[in-house]
Amino acid sequence: MGIFAHRIPIAMQKGKESKPHIGIYGRRNNGKSSLINRLTGQNVAIVSDFAGTTTDPVKKSFEITGFGPVVLVDTAGIDDTGELGLKRIEKTLQSIAHIDLAIVVVTVNTWGEYEDILLAEFRKTDTPFIVVHNKSDIEKATDKFINKVSTFHPSGFIELSCLDNDQPNQLIELIKKAIPESSYRTPTLLGDLISYGDIVLLITPIDVEAPAGRLILPQVQAIRDVLDNDALAVVLKEREIDTFLRKTQVKPALAVTDSQIFFKADASIPRDIPLTSFSILLARFKGDFDNYLRGTPKISELKDGNRVLLLESCNHHVSCDDIGRVKIPRWLSNFTGKQLEFEVVAGLDALPRDIREYSLVIQCGGCMITRKQIINRLRPAVDAGIPVTNYGMAIAYVQGIYQRAIAPFTGSNISKTDYL
């Protein structure tokens, strides 16, 4: 069993899509599901006069004309009751860390302890929110209520009635204004590292973990980003690096490799050519890069019995040589010479234990989720002072090429003997 003797079962919740997420929150029977149906123009959410119809958060993709695709998340009532109801509330509150905009649905001029609970979570996760006073055909919002809500600094306020067909368009306009730009416009993956006409070498191994007939998403994103920046992408396997460089005499402006073959790429790519990995590109693109830079060297400080948490943000078939479950634990154990315990959590579920019981957290590239979801996923560790890093940066560190791998982003000059 070795290093896996104390590893817990892997949580299996599929990672969220990378498009902006909009969560719908409020008490039972306030019309959350009806609101989703009005926005989408479809009966995608179950509507009932019986309180508590919605259980676990339910997602629905929706295209906003002139804006783009978003994901609507219908949640259980924040005022649910009973043992099962408390579990539904917990799921509802957990979902706030993974959304980009919240819509709070209220009725009959009511804002109380349940809405205060939501407000506290919005503030904790820096989540903007819109307040919808629903069922205004039954009771309109009073000036006193509107003034009270304004003190909470929402990103918008609107009254809705199921009898008014024009109001969903007004709400959509509020949504378009309130969604943070960072949730749908992210910095270029590598555009600031290359110039017009540059050649970028993308080293993509085809091994047992490579999906049949296609490339993994980070590789596809890198190819597209090279093309978007009017540069030339050369895609090859690690075995062809030496032949390509020798036969073409080309000097790429940048080389990007899969982290698992960092050592081979480092040996083949001349030192005067910048080298990094797809995972490190993603770490800067949508991860907590500054904290990764601070946390990665803490690998050298791990001690016997320390517990390391590996966070995967999507599910995939697990191979016998899986990167998160096999390779990284093996490399860390060999590098430190310590008896470490490893736990892997896939998806965005709650952690199995208190974050303070871990000595290091290693986040995957996060290609399938948003930057906010990654930041909030890591926030408890950062707040508790637990070092955090990313798959690619951790691999580069234990393979002795960390400084070279981060040099394109830190401006370091790497010599032939400059390693850890």
Structure description:
The protein is α/β, with parallel strands linked by helices and 420 residues long. It has 3 domains: 2-12 and 289-398, Rossmann fold, CATH 3.40.50; 21-183, P-loop containing nucleotide triphosphate hydrolases (Rossmann fold); 199-281, Rossmann fold (3-Layer(aba) Sandwich). Helix content is 34%, strand content 17%. The strands form 3 sheets. It has a 6-stranded mixed sheet, with helices on both faces. The protein has a 5-stranded parallel sheet with strand order 1-13-12-14-15, with helices on both faces. Residues 1-16, 45-54 and 414-420 have low confidence and may be disordered.
Which CATH first-tier class of the largest domain would you pick?
Alpha Beta
Q: CATH homologous superfamily name of the largest domain? A: P-loop containing nucleotide triphosphate hydrolases
Which radius of gyration do the C-alpha atoms yield? Answer: 24 Å
Give the count of helical stretches.
14
**% residues in beta strands:** 15-25%
* Separation, N- and C-terminal Cα atoms: 31 Å
Q: Give the name of the CATH architecture of the largest domain.
A: 3-Layer(aba) Sandwich
Write down the CATH topology of the largest domain: Rossmann fold
Low-pLDDT ranges = 1-16, 45-54, 414-420
Number of strands: 15
Order of H and E elements: EEHEEHEHEHEHEHEHEHEHHEHEEHEHH
What count of structural domains? 3
Strand order of the largest sheet: 3-4-2-5-6-7
Q: What overall form do the CA principal axes indicate?
A: globular
Mean pLDDT level: 85
What level of helicity do the residues show?
A: 25-40%
Largest sheet: 6 strands, mixed
